C-alpha cells in the first residue's frame, strides 16, 4: 500500500503490510465506526459486572497471584492505576520506535475488537497517540512473553495516562503529559478492567515478527543475488539450478531461490565463457551449488512463520475476555508460545543463510579455490591485504548468529508466586531475531562487496545484466580494485544499500525474467 494511505482498524484483521505501514512509515490510523459500537456494547457487560457483589477477575479482584482478593468499588480506579504503574517496570536500553509503534497498533487492534470491555475513549486515545507520533519510552527487558508482553505494554498504557516519558513526533524525549497536551489528547482515567486489557497481549513479539518477516523477504532475495555474484565471479555453473532438476525435489522455497539464481545469472557472458566440453569442473562446492537449498529452507520457514503471524493478527488476545454472548471468561490466549517458537525458527534460518554466504566469500579470497582470482582480491599481493579482514568480520558475525540461534522459547522461568509457572520468552526471541537480521544484512553486504570486486577482476569478461547492475550500484558507494584503503566506510555503505532494499530492487529490475 502507499505509505501515506490510512489503515482502518477494527473492521477486519490487519494485514502484515498494514503493520509495517503504520509502525515503520507512520501511516495514519482510522477506527471503524462499527467497531466502536461493539466496544461500547462490551463495556456495558463490564459495567454490569462491576455492580455485581460476586467477584469477577480483572473487574473487581486483584491480578495474577492476587486474583482471589476482592477490591471494593471505591478502590478500583486506584487498582487500575496501580497495575499500570507497577507493571511499567522495564529496564535497559530504549526499544526502537518502529517496535513500539507496532506494539501500540496491535494492542489497539485487540481493543477495537469489542472483546476486551474497555470504553470507546480508550480505543480513540490509542489511535490518536499513533496518529500524533507519540511513542512511549519502552525498555529492553521486562517481558517474559506471558501473560503477554506485560512490561512493554504497561509503559504504553502509562503514557496514555499522561505519565512517564515518550518520544514526540520530532523524536524528542519529553514527559508524556506534555506530549499529550501538545497533541490535544486528554490523559486516560482508567475504569474497571481497562488496565488489565491494556497489558495482556503478545503484541510486542508479534509486531517484531511481522517486521522481521518483511525484512527477511527482501534479504533472502538479496542472498540469492549475492550467491549469483559469487557463482559468476568464481566461474561456477548455473546448470545445477535448472528447473527440471529442482522439480525432482519439490520444495517450494528451493524452487523460488533457484528461479532467482537462473534470472540473476541469465545472459551472463562470464558464465557462458566456460561452458562446454572444455570446462573440466564436474561440480561446484556446496556453498555455491546448494545455495537454493539453503536459501529455500529459509523461505519455507518464513512461509510457516507468516501463517502463524496472520493467525495471530486475526486473534483477540486478552484475559479475561468478553464473549459474544456476554460472558467474561478467563483463558490462556496471552501465552506467547505460537509466536515465540517461530521467532526462534527464523533465527536458525537466518544463521544458516549467513553461514553459507560467509563460506562463499571465503572461497573468493582463497586462490586455491577461486579459480584464478588473486589472494584476498588484493592489488599488490603481500603489500596489500585486500578483503582479508572483511571476511574476518563476516566470520565473527556468523559466529554470533549461531549463538543467537539458540532458542529462547525453551527457556521458561516461573514468576508471580508460581501462578505464571510456564512462560514463552517470546519477547526475548524477537529481540535476538532483530539482532540476527542486522547481522545477516551485514554478512550479505560483505559478500556483495567481495563479489563486486571479483567481477571487476575478471575483466575483460563481462558480468550479466543483474549482477553487473548491482556491481555498478556498489560502485556508487565503494571503489573498485586497487591499493588498500580504509574499508569500514565502504562496508557500512554497502550494508545501507542492502538493508534499504536497493540491492534487491536493482537485481530484480535487471534480471533475465
UniProtKB/TrEMBL annotation:
It comes from the Bacteria. Belongs to the PAL/histidase family. GO terms for cellular component: cytoplasm. The keyword Ribonucleoprotein does not apply. It comes from Microbacterium bovistercoris. Pathway: Amino-acid degradation; L-histidine degradation into L-glutamate; N-formimidoyl-L-glutamate from L-histidine: step 1/3. GO terms for biological process: L-histidine catabolic process to glutamate and formamide; L-histidine catabolic process to glutamate and formate. GO terms for molecular function: histidine ammonia-lyase activity. It is an enzyme of class 4 (lyase). This is Histidine ammonia-lyase. Its EC number is 4.3.1.3.
